[in-house]
Amino acid sequence: MTTPPSTRTRPSPWERAAPPEPSDGRTRVVVVCAANLARSPLVERLLQAELDARAPGRFAVSSCGVRVLERGAMVPGVRRMLRDRGLDASGHRASPLQATRLRGATLVLTAEEAHSVAVLERVPALLNRTFTVLEFAAIARHHRARGLDPAGLLQRAGSLRAAVTAEGGDRDLIDPVGPDPARLGALEAQLGDAVTVIADALAATRG
Q1: 135 contacts 194 by C-beta, under 8 angstroms
Q2: Alpha-carbon distance values, 63 to 46, 67, 146, 159 (Å)
Q3: Which of 25, 23, 41 minimizes the C-alpha distance to 103?
Q4: Which helix (H) or strand (E) holds 60?
Q5: Which of 51, 108, 198, 207 is an S-S bond match for 59, by CB 3.0 to 4.6 Å?
Q6: CA–CA distance, 182 with 200 (Å, rounded to integer)
């Protein structure tokens, strides 16, 4: 019987050749969005800065995209947002989502639920370690509000998903790329203190 062709997009040569993430003992967090030009690099830089302030040297945050067509730089609005916060916005180049990038990640944060699905298609074992940014922030708040041991959050996060989902609320971050400049401000407002909440929670864990 002839095997039907895969419906998944064939990876580009540079995606297939990309090396795995190095293992240096740090807790690895991977942030995923669509093109790795706006939402995921924004959260990556914000979260790395927050974690470095709380737990220097313990965490390595990187980002990638599920539909990366070229190694582009961050969109100008995101660069401005980072610079306005006193953070370095240089050096970013879009990187594709791939299994080698995901293996060994302690936590995967995505911009949208569809991106979480893309992560799990590649590495199903990450089910209890993959959440949207807003979902994980809600889990961290839920965990803290109930006085649970902060050191156990990463081990318990997957089991808390259902309780937080029942509370409702947004799961997807607004995509700021497009002709409407107000979308960038809407994204910033939507993020609110989510990155700070996540950093507080991660810094209190045992890795």
Answers
A1: no
A2: 12, 13, 31, 25
A3: 23
A4: strand 59-65
A5: 51
A6: 29
Confirm if 109 and 197 have CB atoms less than 8 A apart.
no
What string of pLDDT tens digits covers the 207 residues of the chain? Answer: 343 333 344 444 434 434 445 557 899 999 999 999 999 999 999 999 999 999 999 999 999 999 998 888 999 999 999 999 999 999 999 999 999 989 889 999 999 999 999 999 999 999 999 999 999 999 999 999 999 999 999 999 999 998 887 666 789 999 998 888 899 999 999 999 999 999 999 999 975
Residue 51 has phi, psi (to 5 degrees) of -70, -40
Strands ordered across the beta sheet of 107-110: 59-65, 27-33, 107-110, 130-132
First to last CA, the chain: 47
What is the rounded CA–CA span in Å between residue 50 and residue 74? 20
Taking residue 130's Cβ as centre, other Cβ atoms within 10 Å add up to 28
Specify the pTM.
0.88
Comparing C-alpha atoms, which of 133, 101, 88, 98 is closest to residue 118?
98
